[in-house]
Design a protein that fits this description.
Number of helices: 6
Distance between the termini: 59 Å
Largest sheet: 5 strands, mixed
CATH superfamily of the largest domain: Histidine kinase-like ATPase, C-terminal domain
Order of helices and strands: HHHHEHEEHEE
CATH architecture of the largest domain: 2-Layer Sandwich
CATH topology of the largest domain: Heat Shock Protein 90
Radius of gyration: 26 Å
Structural class: alpha+beta
Number of domains: 2
Strand content: 5-15%
Number of strands: 5
């Protein structure tokens, strides 16, 4: 009997050790995955910044020159026939539309306000931009004492707010939305809420991607990169509120 008890104890000890080893392997795998996601995200942001600058310095400037030349030609050449003048005005309008689109793309990739003026200015630009093309009335609120945030924290919070507003525009059928930037003593919080149609939440946040909520899943991944949390509140007919808290 004693021998059996010793055997059981040895087996239990071996099983416990195996469980500890598996748990440690999982922890290392999660750390490696988190590091990989962090590096990929950083590389993506650097590439976004590079493309945005190239669009601004090269493509946008060339389109500005072309637009001015077409405008000057259409309004200044007295020998043009009415048909050719109308054609030039049409080309000028098309060029101007392309210019506005490229400017928006450049700002969307990396808003200049974020690098020059900080998170609040970038959020105000974002709200104005989305309101312009969506027709949604968007308000920006600030709570607490404003303070300087690390560049990476600002970028993560901006990208989450950007994706949240995209979801509002694409899916919510909302007429109003709010962005609230809140500074606590040791945390920074962003809340994006709308008065749209809402939706049924999955049982767990881990089910977001499985349920097709890829935008929300991406926001959660970004928050977790900085040890932050993302929560979503929503019900059909009662709008949606996305809250992100970053320890910064």
């Amino acid at each position: 009997a004693i021998g059996n008890q010793i055997g059981v104890a040895v087996d239990n000890a071996r099983l416990y050790q195996q469980q500890r080893e598996v748990a440690e392997q999982l922890r290392v795998m999660q750390e490696n995955l988190r590091f990989y996601i962090h590096q990929v995200t950083r590389a993506q942001e650097e590439e976004r910044k590079r493309i945005s600058h190239e669009l601004h310095d090269d493509t946008i400037q060339a389109l500005v020159v072309l637009s001015r030349q077409l405008d000057a030609l259409a309004s200044g050449d007295k020998g043009l026939s009415e048909e050719n003048r109308l054609r030039l005005e049409e080309l000028w309008q098309q060029t101007d539309n392309i210019l506005r689109g490229v400017r928006r793309l450049s700002q969307d990739l990396r808003p200049a306000a974020l690098d020059r003026l900080g998170l609040l200015a970038a959020l105000e630009w974002l709200a104005s931009d989305v309101a312009e093309y969506s027709g949604i009335a968007i308000k920006v609120n600030v709570l607490g004492t404003k303070r300087h945030l690390h560049e990476e924290v600002q970028l993560v919070l901006f990208r989450i707010a950007q994706e949240a507003l995209r979801n509002v525009w694409r899916h919510s059928q909302a007429t109003e939305a709010e962005i609230t930037l809140e500074f606590d003593e040791r945390k920074t919080r962003i809340i994006v809420s709308d008065n749209g149609k809402g939706f049924n939440l999955p049982k767990t946040m881990g089910d977001l991607a499985r349920d097709g909520k890829l935008g929300l899943a991406g926001m959660q991944e970004r928050a977790q990169l900085l040890d932050g949390t993302l929560t979503v509140q929503s019900e059909p007919g009662r709008g949606t509120t996305v809250t992100v808290v970053i320890p910064a």
